[in-house]
């Protein structure tokens, strides 16, 4: 027997490096007419590196102490930024104490107790919200400087006091700009960027790939809100993301696609399709495969 068109399209997608979870999804991929892309791990390679360590006077820590505390707190996290912090500590051969009471908030950061001290590592704007420490103003200034340099700024607080910031840089994927432009052509709409990172860092990166519509500083539910707004305007939205913070948007979207290599377990489970080959260019390829299969079906 010859294979039904949607099933051969699934097999073809597999050869392109995309795992499409069902024939229904294979069919829906071709309906997509708007695409929302996540930044960290999706447009970027997702292997960020710590490039800057900036100390704040208040806590009186040395660079290695700051990195040790931050890396110990980040160790249980699967976020790409967490891996960057742990790698930076390893490169300096620092011994990491075991963190207790680990907690993480998607789109914000992590908290843990390390050597009896309460550590928080995460988005400066979120951690500084409502903190009246004298170091807060200085921390915001340093965060702004790092963002202007194209870095993602991560704040470390120790017992509630801003202790230092880490500047983290990630490379754009080699196929990001080409993919954005093929998606724009295929769907006749420019893709939008949805990110939890700050606007300055996000806008800089968006400009490099040709994205104009940038929504930054988003919490997971804000990503859902952005998707629902587009769908309310009659769009069939594909969300492409990798993080725990993307999972609700992947679920809310017409079609959710997860980046497989660095993707969080929750994103991979929630998504309708998973990019296994770690190439963004496979996204427009499966949309085209779906459209061809649909023509054969109807
Ligand atoms: P994106 O939407 O671009 O993938 P996220 O929503 O995952 O980014 O993260 C948004 C912001 O929250 C990050 O830029 C960072 O400031 C902060 N953040 C989230 N998780 C962590 C973490 N484990 N360590 C440090 N910062 C974090
Ligand atoms: Mg991400």
TrEMBL record:
Q: Which residues form the signal peptide?
A: none
Q: Which UniProt keywords apply?
A: ATP-binding, Cell membrane, Magnesium, Membrane, Metal-binding, Nucleotide-binding, Translocase, Transmembrane, Transmembrane helix
Q: Does the keyword tRNA processing apply?
A: no
- Keyword Metal-binding among record annotations: yes
Protein's cellular compartments: Cell membrane
Q: Which family does it belong to?
A: Belongs to the cation transport ATPase (P-type) (TC 3.A.3) family. Type IB subfamily.
Protein name (record):
Heavy metal translocating P-type ATPase
Identify the species of origin. Streptomyces musisoli
């Amino acid at each position: 027997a010859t294979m039904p068109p949607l099933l051969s399209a699934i097999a073809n997608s597999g050869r392109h490096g995309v795992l499409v979870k069902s024939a229904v999804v294979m069919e829906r991929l071709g309906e997509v007419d708007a695409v929302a892309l996540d930044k960290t791990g999706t447009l970027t390679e997702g292997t960020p590196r710590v490039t800057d360590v900036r100390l704040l006077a208040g806590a009186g820590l040395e660079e290695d102490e700051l990195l040790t505390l931050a890396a110990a707190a980040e160790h249980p996290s699967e976020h790409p930024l967490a891996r960057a912090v742990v790698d930076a500590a390893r490169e300096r051969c620092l011994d990491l104490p075991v963190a207790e009471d680990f907690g993480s908030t998607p789109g914000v950061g992590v908290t843990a107790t390390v050597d009896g001290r309460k550590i928080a590592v995460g988005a400066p704007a979120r951690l500084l919200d409502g903190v009246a420490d004298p170091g807060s103003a200085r921390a915001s200034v340093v965060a702004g400087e790092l963002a202007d340099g194209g870095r993602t700024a991560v704040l470390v607080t120790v017992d509630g006091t801003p202790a230092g910031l880490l500047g983290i840089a990630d490379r754009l994927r080699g196929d990001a700009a080409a993919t954005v432009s093929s998606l724009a052509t295929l769907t006749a709409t420019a893709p939008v960027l949805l990110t939890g990172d700050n606007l300055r860092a996000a806008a800089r990166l968006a400009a490099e790939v040709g994205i104009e519509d940038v929504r930054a500083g988003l919490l997971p539910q804000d990503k859902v809100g952005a998707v629902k707004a587009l769908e309310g305007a009659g769009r069939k939205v594909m969300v492409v993301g990798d993080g725990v913070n993307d999972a609700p948007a992947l679920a809310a979207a017409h079609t959710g696609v997860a980046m497989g290599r660095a993707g969080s377990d929750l994103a991979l489970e929630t998504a309708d399709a998973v990019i296994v080959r770690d190439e963004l260019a496979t996204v427009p390829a499966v949309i085209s495969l779906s459209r061809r299969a649909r023509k054969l079906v109807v």
